[in-house]
Design goal:
The chain is α+β, with helices and mostly antiparallel strands. Among the domains are: 130-250, Beta Barrel (Butyryl-CoA Dehydrogenase, subunit A, domain 2); 268-395, Up-down Bundle (Butyryl-CoA Dehydrogenase, subunit A, domain 3), CATH 1.20.140. It has helices spanning 5-22, 41-56, 75-87, 96-109, 112-123, 239-250, 268-274, 289-311, 324-346, 366-379, 384-395, and strands at residues 129-132, 148-152, 155-163, 173-179, 191-197, 203-208, 217-228, 232-233, 279-280, 283-284. Strands 1-4-5-8 form a 4-stranded mixed beta sheet. A 4-stranded antiparallel beta sheet has the order 2-3-7-6, with no helix packed on it. Strand 6 (203-208) and strand 7 (217-228) form a beta hairpin. The longest helix has 23 residues, at 289-311. The chain is globular, with a radius of gyration of 22 Å.
């Protein structure tokens, strides 16, 4: 049954009023701009409390089943709640790998026991999730993963190393891709998918310091780590298929995410407002005709992304290349975000060289930090180069 505009309007007013009262504001310390910069216990606990509060109010996981902690309502309500979170500039819901990838996967193909075990903890922020896909020696060649999982009775013994395991040092569970059959004729057929606990002896994490000076990423080491055999999702050898489905969620090509904000969203309007007062050769930089042309280009690209998302919901407008907009969204969005933040820095002139901690940095160095942080999104879930190949091969039908 479709939801009426009146219902959504009334709900929007309700959410807006709640956000107005409950927005925690500035905590007095630097908050992560995305879920990939949660670097210390203080940030973690602040964001955990916020996510739990949003879920308790009924504004997170609204389309997930009621029996597993969700709201059981039409996804349109979650879209409204997310829009109001952005408008009120509230903190992120940090447990993104659970909310956006592991959770939708478990909802779609998990057993009833897996849904009962994992979903509510994802929503209420009690159980942090991380991802164990990438490995140091294989980059984006996920099919060549070498972390081994050997069946031993009621357990699997895991040995290997994963990298870029965001929040791995805080996580209770990992979605893990490991090789169970090294002799498989096709390398993809030797992989299996696990919902692995992170507290097993033999699993160790080491934080990785980023160019921003912040943490968030870790590398994870498995040394004869034993996990229960029922952590296997599906059957042995189905890991590649399940991992590809997971990446569809990560790349925005599949619905099902619980909602909430994964990152601090800034728009071209925000950039223009923050550039007020900057001068170039004695004149406001925003009056420079070349700058104005650059800004108009950014506005058009931002608008095209928004209209593309709407168009993707109308099958008759995408019949020429079905799935093209969702499959290309990650590439288009992350690259546009990176370019826009780079433009914001370049238009600051010499001030663009200042950073967080410099007393005279504009907006406390927000745009500089945002620019450095934008690179992680162009890499995670498949680099921009990998995404371009996906568009070429799977949308345009070009040869490999």
């Amino acid at each position: 049954m479709s939801v009426s505009e009146q219902e959504l309007g009334e709900f929007r007013a309700e959410v807006s009023a709640w956000m107005e009262v409950n927005n925690p504001g500035d905590p007095g310390f630097l908050l992560p701009q995305t879920f990939m910069e949660v670097g210390d216990e203080r940030q973690l606990e602040f964001l955990r409390e916020w996510q739990h509060k949003v879920w308790s109010a009924g504004y997170l996981g609204m389309a997930w089943p009621k029996e597993y902690g969700g709201g059981g309502v039409d996804p349109a309500f979650q879209a409204v709640a997310d829009a109001e979170m952005r408008r009120h500039n509230v903190p992120i819901c940090f447990n993104v790998i659970g909310l956006g990838w592991a959770g939708p996967l478990i909802n779609d193909i998990g057993t009833e026991a897996e849904k009962a075990r994992y979903l509510k903890g994802i929503l209420n922020a009690e159980d942090v999730w991380c991802q164990g896909f990438s490995e140091p020696d294989h980059g984006s060649d996920l099919g060549s993963a070498q972390t081994r999982a050997v069946r031993d009775g009621d357990e699997y013994v895991i040995n290997g190393q994963k990298i870029w395991t965001t929040m791995g040092n805080f996580a209770k569970y990992m979605i893990l891709l490991a090789r169970t059959n090294p002799e498989a004729e096709r390398k993809y057929d030797g992989l299996s998918f696990f919902l692995s606990p992170m507290d097993a002896p033999g699993i160790d994490t080491r934080p990785i310091r980023k160019i921003t000076g912040e943490y968030g990423f870790t590398e994870t080491f498995f040394t004869d780590a034993r996990i229960p055999a029922d952590c296997l999702m599906g059957e042995e050898g189905q890991g590649w298929r399940i991992a590809m489905q997971t990446l569809q969620y990560e790349r925005g090509a599949e619905a099902g995410a619980a909602g909430g904000l994964a990152m601090v969203r800034v728009t071209v309007d925000d950039m223009i407002n923050d550039l007020q007062g900057i001068q170039r050769d004695g004149e406001p930089v925003l009056q420079d005709p070349i700058v104005r042309d650059q800004l108009v280009q950014a506005i058009m690209e931002e608008k095209a992304l928004a209209l593309g998302d709407r168009r993707a919901q109308i099958s008759h407008l995408t019949s020429d290349y079905p799935g093209s907009l969702p499959l290309s969204h990650k590439l288009r969005f992350t690259e546009m975000t990176r370019r826009m933040r780079q433009l914001a820095i370049s238009l600051q002139g010499a001030e663009g060289g200042l950073y967080v901690g410099d007393a005279t940095a504009r907006q406390g160095g927000f745009w500089q930090r945002a620019y450095f942080n934008s690179f992680s999104a162009t890499i995670g879930g498949g680099t921009s180069q990998v995404q371009a190949n996906i568009v070429a091969e799977h949308i345009l039908g070009l040869p490999k």
